[in-house]
């Protein structure tokens, strides 16, 4: 006879698989993901839900909110800079891009589930510094990812000319490390959306004292990590990721060539590596901050 914990896990797994399949299929149909990205996204979301952690779902909900705000434009449409090595048109994410933006959180979620049985917990270092750090890392991960997404998708619509984060010199749109005020504000809002979702869901599902429940509101200023992640991402992009302007194709490119004039950066990291490093650093910072504050 199955134990209650096993039955709960089975239900979460079934629901997770069904929900993840619907969302992944929709993303593939809309060409936000290619087939490999759809499979990777399905696995990541199914694992998150099966483990009882829902920030991945809330991140997608936040992305959907942005989609509505933008007037139902397709992600990465003609106005957006090319991503994932695709030139022009929609941006289609491959499996490696999905994993670069989700692997750290997925590992933390699995560890969290093994330690807690998939039950929501409050941020409380007196109860467990390890679990508090893990939750803080997960929050930072998705604040960074969502902040970067909002910054890219909203910032590109800004009429303001981007400035390179290291020198503040004006650069063309699509240059790695280029920032605008509107994009930075969008990154902050993207992180706050994740923080608000965590607080609301946590207050409904986690069991903790009244005083500790009130302290969970401190997640909101911590979720400004969306801005921190965007700044780290931009700094890495400006210094360790090559950007240049192709005089033949009349566009910003990320690879050197005889017709390419360098704008900034070295050829050390590609876009996926920049994302992974910025997520890792942001997660580490928020994990430490949560252990210290809570």
Describe the structure.
The structure is a single chain. The model is unreliable at about 65-90 (pLDDT under 50). Helix 3 (about 55-70) crosses helix 7 (about 180-205) and helix 6 (about 130-155) crosses helix 11. With about 290 residues, this protein is mainly alpha-helical. A hairpin with a 4-residue loop joins strand 3 and strand 4. It is globular. The protein has a 3-stranded antiparallel sheet. About 60% of the residues lie in helices and about 5% in strands. About 45% of the residues are buried.
Brief synopsis:
This protein is mostly helical and 294 residues long.
List key phrases describing it:
294 residues, 11 helices
- Report the biggest beta sheet as strand number plus sense, adding barrel if it closes: 3 strands, antiparallel
Mean pLDDT: 78
Morphology: globular
- In helices, the fraction of residues equals 55-70%
As residue ranges, the low-confidence spans are 63-92
Radius of gyration: 20 Å
Give, in spatial order, the strands making up the sheet with the most strands.
Answer: 4-3-5
| Count of alpha/pi helices | 11
The structural class is mainly alpha
SSE order, one letter for each helix or strand:
HHHHHHEEHHHHEEEH
How many beta-strand segments? 5
* Separation of the first and last Cα atoms: 39 Å
DSSP strand content: 5-15%
